[in-house]
Amino acid sequence: MTQLSSEQLIEFSQGNPKAFEAVFNCFRMRIFYFVKKLIDDKEEAEEITSETFVKLYRIHDKFNTFNNIQAFLFITARNASLNFLRYRKRQQENKEEFINHEEQEIDAAWFAETDIKVEILKRIYEEVEELPDKCKEIFKLAYLKGYSITQIAEKLNISRQTVSNQKTTAIKKLQMKFLDRPDLFLWMLYFLSETRH
């Protein structure tokens, strides 16, 4: 496992994107395999792993030691996994179809519910619109409308793996856009975590 230097830990607590990337690379596969072993679902394990790091970044200023970061990641991932297992159990017991939600218009009104400055929202929205068509469509369905991987796959008549891959591609492209602006990068992570289905 890649080791983290004391400088990287300090920079992470200060919100440095490169330090966050170092933490991510250090723990990502350990968290992923930990979750996958618990829930036996690769796509959902990827989702939970991503969300766990989003939550870590949102409160990065509270962590400046390796052990604290490690403990938070594993506890958060475990709790999310247990929540997923309870959810899946309810779905299996009820055997009910998902309720069809009316599609909502994706426009500036979505951002109006937050207290972020308009110019920051405009930049984020513009970057989403610059994504490749398929990435953009899947990103909006997943993070703006709250569709699950299965729902998106059924709606677009594609495989769950394709949906998962396109979501990952979209997030990576957005991350690259925001690396020069840590504040926008942080807001993007906030939006992803707040709009999780």
UniProtKB/TrEMBL annotation:
The keyword ATP-binding does not apply. SMART domains: HTH_LUXR (SM00421). It holds the Pfam family Sigma70_r4_2. InterPro entries: RNA_pol_sigma-70-like, RNA_pol_sigma-70_dom, RNA_pol_sigma70_r2, RNA_pol_sigma70_r4_t2, RNA_pol_sigma_r2, RNA_pol_sigma_r3/r4-like, Tscrpt_reg_LuxR_C, WH-like_DNA-bd_sf. GO terms for biological process: DNA-templated transcription initiation. Keywords: Sigma factor, Transcription, Transcription regulation. GO terms for molecular function: DNA binding; sigma factor activity. The keyword Membrane does not apply. Residues 128-188 form the HTH luxR-type domain. Belongs to the sigma-70 factor family. ECF subfamily. This is HTH luxR-type domain-containing protein.
